[in-house]
Write a structure and sequence with these properties.
Keywords: ATP-binding, Helicase, Hydrolase, Nucleotide-binding. This protein has about 425 residues and is of the alpha/beta class. It contains 15 helices and 14 strands. Strands 3-4-2-5-6-1-7 form a seven-stranded parallel sheet, with helices on both faces. The protein has a seven-stranded parallel sheet with strand order 10-11-9-12-13-8-14, sandwiched between helices.
């Protein structure tokens, strides 16, 4: 099914077509008609399936077909998203869709100055794309009112809650119109997401294009068992021997990210890092160089797990497994997007085998293991058995030593008794 079959306004269809869209993805086919009819929607779809167009296009169509002047410091639609990267990406997409339309779109997120954002918000906007924390700051500052909004979208709702935005989101919801149409998009549905949906929605329609918490079929997934201390060595060897290009690597901490970046560069692999302590300019520059092919590897903490749309990303490497099994789904969703294929590689040490089992339980199948000669790692179960044997041997040896000491002590005492008795007899 193509976009022309959905009878979008000509100016909107022209922008969408020039952006390169031809056929609708499954989530777009299912979500757009339901949103058009005015229903609240709970949508489950993996990253890279066209979610932005699924909620943005029907909203844009309604704004075009029912135009109204926006008052100062007011807006018609709000899209909440967890990260500045995702906010910027959504803004880029919507600006492309509306290239031939006169709609005002304002993006607000942290890491940049408040005042320029405040000036734009006070003028009023058709659509605001924001991270929860920064939008709440503007609400408290009186720069924007949400009392009259018609549409509210929570994109990557699970991630926003995971990042601790629950309180901010609830405060924002309290400031919105009760008559709004609400849309919640999420790749996973845990208890907190369901509770949020129950609070937000009025008789919502459920839209899903696959099992919850599953990975895209376009992504091949493999595991490399390896000792933690040898992960960097293995990563360099695989990149070099297999000539991997466009590799997004996830590391556990900012310190590990910087250290790995330094070591890969010393190995002759062009690499940069992005994490929360990097300023927005540095992060944008690293992403641009990576997208343009000037960097072979981009190393990141969890900050890049959502929202980054990197064209033709070939490989995602979990240098360290994520703390939450659900985050595995989001990480590897950076590749295999828009119908293209990708590869997800996970380095797993003995200490991470329990986390790997949680991931496999979540996605519903066992991941293929690849053993690299020279990097073999013994299994956790085998080590536990060996440890139990050592402990058992140690206890037995300790018992033997105790028995031996007891026998020696008894012999010694017996010898003393004999000597004492002999001395007594001599005196008599």
């Amino acid at each position: 099914m193509n976009f022309e079959s959905f009878s979008f306004p000509e100016a909107l269809l022209r922008g969408v077509t020039e952006y390169g869209y031809k056929n609708l993805t499954p989530i777009q086919q299912k979500a757009i008609p339901v949103i058009r009819r005015g229903h609240d929607v709970i949508a489950n779809a993996q990253t890279g399936t066209g979610k932005t167009a699924a909620f943005a296009l029907p909203i844009l169509q309604k704004l075009i077909e029912n135009p109204k002047a926006v008052a100062k410091a007011n807006c018609q639609a709000v899209i909440l998203t967890p990260t500045r990267e995702l906010a910027a990406q959504i803004a880029d997409n919507i600006n492309a869709y509306t290239h031939y339309l006169e709609l005002s779109i304002v993006t607000v997120y942290g890491g940049t100055k408040m005042q320029p954002q405040a000036l734009k918000l006070r003028e009023g906007a058709d659509i605001i794309i924001a991270t929860p924390g920064r939008l709440l700051e503007h609400l408290i500052g009186g720069n924007i009112s949400l009392a009259n909004i018609d549409y509210l979208v929570l994109d990557e709702a699970d991630r926003m809650l995971d990042m601790g935005f629950s309180t901010d989101i609830h405060k924002i919801l309290q400031a919105t119109s009760k008559q709004k149409q609400s849309m919640l998009f999420s790749a996973t549905f845990n208890g907190s997401v369901k509770r949020l949906a129950n609070e937000l929605m009025k008789n919502p329609k459920i839209v899903s294009v696959g099992k919850q918490n599953t990975t895209a079929e376009t992504v091949s997934q493999v595991v490399y068992p390896v000792e933690q201390r040898r992960k960097r060595e293995l990563l360099s060897e695989l990149i070099g021997k297999k000539n991997w290009q466009r590799v997004l690597v996830f590391s556990a901490t900012r310190e590990d990210t910087d250290r790995l970046t330094k070591e890969l560069n010393l190995d002759g692999i062009p690499t940069k890092a992005i994490h929360s302590e990097k300023n927005q300019g540095n992060r944008r520059r690293a992403l641009r160089e990576f997208t343009e092919g000037k960097l072979q590897v981009l190393v990141s903490t969890e900050v890049a797990a959502r929202g980054l749309d990197i064209p033709n990303l070939e490989y995602v490497v979990n240098y360290d497994l994520p703390f939450l099994a659900e985050d595995y789904v989001h990480r590897i969703g950076r590749t295999g997007r828009a119908g293209k294929t990708g590869v997800a590689i996970s380095f797993v040490s003995r200490e991470e085998e329990r986390t790997l089992k949680d991931i496999e339980k979540l996605i519903g199948f066992k991941l293929k293991r690849i053993m690299v000669p020279g990097y073999e790692v013994s299994s956790r179960d085998l080590l536990l058995k060996q440890l139990q044997k050592r402990r058992s041997f140690s206890k037995n040896r300790e018992r033997s030593d105790n028995v031996r000491e007891q026998i020696v002590a008894e012999k010694s005492m017996s010898g003393r008794r004999v000597k004492v008795n002999a001395t007594k007899k001599a005196k008599k």
